[in-house]
Amino acid sequence: MAVTSYRQFLKLSEERTVDETKRGRDMETFFRLCVAQTFQEGESTQILDPENCDQMNESLARIHANYNKNKYPCLRDTSFTGVTVEECKMILDCIVLERVESKPGSLVFPLLNFIRVK
Length: 118
Known about the structure:
With 118 residues, this protein is an all-alpha fold. It folds into two domains: 2-71, no CATH class; 85-117, no CATH class. It has seven helices and no strands. The longest helix has 15 residues, at 50-64.
């Protein structure tokens, strides 16, 4: 059982790519770390709850396949803030965040500090 679960997680990990614009904050990086910690002994790792493991694998496969995005398509290309998806991606880019953090007088600086404290 652990062998197939481990291989399924590896297959999902290989299919996903790391987003370089989100260095250290990418979901794939986090996913790979979790798989490495969970399966420290590789295929010989003993799984205590195989049903939960299979459920997590199915959930991750749905996320990877954009199941909900395809099932419930957005009718508009903007959010409640009026910002498009591309503009959101640009704002969340590491380079932009570094620039904002380097300017202590910006309005976003107190918010970033507040988030880090939490």
